[in-house]
Each structure stands twice: as C-alpha cells, then as structure tokens.
Amino acid sequence: MMKLIALPSAIGLLITLCLHTTPAQALEARTWVSTAGNDASDCSRATPCASFLTAHNKTLPGGEINCVDAGMFSIDFPLNITKSITIDCAGTLGGLMGNAIGEVITINTANINVRLRNLTINGLGANFIGINFQNGNALFVENCTIFGFNGGVGHGISFKPANGFTSQLYVTDSVVEGNGLFSGSGGGIIIQPSGSGSARVVIDRTRVNSNIYGIFANGTGSTGTIAVQVKDSTVSGNAFNGISAFTSAGHSITSITVDHSSSLLNGANGILAQGQGGFVFVKDSTVMSNVTGLRAVSGGAIFSYQNNALTGNVTDGAPTNVVTLK
Predict the structure, then answer these.
(1) SS3 at position 291
(2) ∠160-27-69 over CA atoms, to 5°?
(3) What is the CA radius of gyration of the chain?
(4) Confidence band (pLDDT; 50, 70, 90) for 33?
C-alpha cells in the first residue's frame, strides 16, 4: 500500500516541477546588440549580445533586433535570416561589415517578411553580396546604405525570388553605391527570379550610384512577371546601364516604370529595354549626360508620357512609343 500511496505523490511532484520550470533560453520579442556585448547573454537591453546572428537566433518570429551603440558588427559567415524579423539601428549608426569573402545577409525561407532599417552594410571592396534574397514573401530596405561589394558576383542587393513564388522588394530612402566587379558584372540592385518566380519591386527616394550596373531587372531566367516601379530616385554614374529591363522571348515579361526620377552620367545607356517582353515606361523624368539616353533593342520597348527631359546625352535616342497623359 505504501507504494500505491508514494507513486501518485511522485507523479504530482513531477507535474508541479514541470509547470514551474522556465526554458533556459526563451525567445524574446525584442533583442539588442552592442559592440561591448556578449553572445552568451540573453540579448536583453541590459545584457546585449555581440552579433546580429546570435540576436536573430534568440528573437521570436516577427520580433525586432535593435542596436545599443554605434558600431560595425563584423561577421565571419552570412547572417542567415530564417524568420520574419526587423533589424533597426535607428539613432546609433549601427551596421554590418563583411569579414570573409561571401555574403553579408542571406534570406532564403518561404513566406517570411524581413525589414532592414537604418543600417550601413559595407562589403569592404571584397565581399560578394550585401543582401542576398533567394526566397521569402517580402524584403523591406529602409534608410540603409549598401556599398563596397566588388568581389565574386558583386551585388549590393541581389533579389532572386525562387521558382513558384512571388516576392516583393521595397527599397526606400536608401543609398546603393560602389557595387559590382570592375570586369563588368554585378551592380547595385539586381532583380532576377528563377523558374516561374515573380518579382514586385518598388524603389522610392533612393540613390543608385557608381555601380557597374545600376538597377537591372533580368527576366531571362524565369517565366514569372517582373514589375518594377522607380519613383523619386536618382540612378547615376554607373559604369554601364543606369536602368535596364532585359529579357527574351518565352521568358519573363519585364516592366519598369520610371516616375519623377533621373538617370544621369551612366557609361552606356541611361535607360535600356532589351528583348521581346522588355518594357520601360518613363514619366516626368530626366535622362541626361549618358552615352546613350534611351535605347530599345531586340523587341524591347520604351514608352514616354511626353513630359520628360531627354537631352545632353552623346546620343539621346528616342522612345519607341508615346503615351497620352490622362
């Protein structure tokens, strides 16, 4: 009988212990990093972590990482973002700096939303890609500076939605400059879905300067639709084309709308539409001081709303079609 009495007591004690046990490393809705941080900590405001990667791993999906102080947080491996999360270093001049040849930030998980705000992302002239988006629902890049990615493929932002997915990119109030290989590849913002992937992109109040290519929408690797809106932005001083819609028959319809923006001082074309299904619509914009202003080849088309400034290029070129403002 004693055993029968003791057994329920032991079970009750075990249940009580389980109910009152807290996980050793519970995830937090908000975590922090600091130049004086310690990755063995809980990433709280009082005891911040030293790296974004550790903070990411200790943050709840949908949560946020903030910076305690100013600093460039070196990373030896990519910051692999695998959950919906916000990284915001407002007011601290925080950022990420590549410490090994490769990528700084990688996003490759279906259906997640990632927000990067108030960050400097520095490739040190050798790393391959600043932000490498391969899969996810949406990427928001807000008030960021991305520069110095001149190794390997040399992309500031590489946006390549995966086969079967439609992904969104929003770049706002940012600077993307000095990216791409001097041999002529890579560039500032490269949009290139794969398989049947589709891209929806808005670039607003952003400067894309002094890259190899500026904004390059490439539909030759997919069959999904690529739609890009460039508004209130400047694309200038890129070694080759400033703004390009590039595709071929049987591949993605690739459309770019350039609204109240400028393409200036680029080493080849200010605006290029190349390939059947490649379209650019130009409204209230300036295309000036490029080698060629507007160029449409191989079935590509450039539509003008007839309120643009096209002048001062070595060869101005001309739109293939005009559209009446309504």
Answers:
(1) coil
(2) 75
(3) 24
(4) very high
Choose among 91, 87, 153: nearest CA to 121.
Answer: 87
User: Which residues, listed in sequence order, are joined to residue 229 by a DSSP beta bridge?
Assistant: 202, 257
d(CA 66, CA 89): 5
Tell which residue, 92, 58, 61, 56, has the closest CA to residue 77. 56
Contact between 241 and 268 under an 8 Å Cβ cutoff? The reply is yes
Region of residue 226 (phi > 0: left; psi between -120 and 50: alpha; otherwise: beta): beta
Compute the average pLDDT of residues 177-183.
92
Compute CA 136 distance to the chain's CA centroid, rounded to the nearest angstrom: 11
Show me where the domains of the chain are located.
Answer: 101-322
Q: 286: closest CA among 266, 12, 276, 32? A: 266
Residue with tokens 């450039």: 302
Q: Are 293 and 262 spatial neighbours (Cβ–Cβ below 8 Å)?
A: no
Looking at CATH, the fold of the domain delimited by 101-322 is given as Pectate Lyase C-like (2.160.20)
